[in-house]
Design goal:
With about 120 residues, the protein is an alpha+beta fold. Helix content is about 40%, strand content about 25%. It has four helices and five strands, in the order αββββααβα.
Amino acid sequence: MPTDTARSILAEAQSRREDRRPDPRLHGISGSYRFDVEGVGSWRLEVRDETVAITESTAPADCVIRCDEADFVRIARGEQNLLTAALQGRVQVEGDYALAQRLHGFIRVTRKQAA
């Protein structure tokens, strides 16, 4: 089984989203996220009208999440709660905490449906 990396997870998510079809799981989520993964890169997710666009970018975002790659992978897999990791000091969240909470719920649902 190949090892997940931040880059592979985001590339897979980006390829799934290229068709830009609405995703009802994103209903009610509107805003931008930026993941700054230490030593790997930064990605910006723009969520609007049940669609998400993912780009490699350091552009400003409503919610910025900084972490190392191992924590990012655990969060993306749904194995680690984003907000718990922030409270433990392993992940830094800046900006809109409500968006961070919504993102965790979306990740958890997405990973369950992919399994």
